[in-house]
Design goal:
By secondary structure, this protein is mainly beta. The protein has one domain. Helices cover about 10% and strands about 60% of the residues. The chain has one helix and nine strands, in the order βββββββββα. A five-stranded antiparallel beta sheet has the order 5-6-7-8-9. A hairpin with a 5-residue loop joins strand 6 (about 60-70) and strand 7. The radius of gyration is 13 Å and the shape is globular.
Length: about 110
């Protein structure tokens, strides 16, 4: 099981729903919470999206690369958890808006 990943100062945490889809092929679906009140801020459960790369840019900003299984679809995401804003790119498609809108945009791919 993938360990939780905390923001640099511990304000936010990324947790993963992990499951095997094929022998030795694991999906690690991210969910992001604010630690102080356990508020869910971003959630890709319900689809088969797996976190491929996670990079904290600051205490509240992060970069995520997620890929959908099966297939070759990936989305490059930038989230600002403090301001509830995000942006994403996938192929020639781009989104900017609030985090729930970004979740919906990712699920449309």
């Amino acid at each position: 099981m993938k360990d939780d990943i905390f923001s640099p100062e511990g304000t936010y945490v990324i947790q993963f729903d992990v499951f095997e889809v094929k022998m030795s092929h694991w999906i690690e679906t991210p969910r992001i919470f604010r630690v102080a009140d356990n508020q869910l801020l971003f959630d890709l459960r319900g689809d088969v999206w797996s976190a491929m790369r996670i990079n904290w840019l600051s205490e509240s900003r992060l970069e995520l690369l997620v890929a959908k299984y099966p297939g070759r679809i990936s989305c490059h995401l930038f989230l600002d958890l403090q301001t509830d804003r995000g942006a994403g790119t996938a192929d020639n498609d781009r989104f900017e808006g609030n985090l729930s809108g970004l979740e919906n945009w990712v699920r449309q791919h």
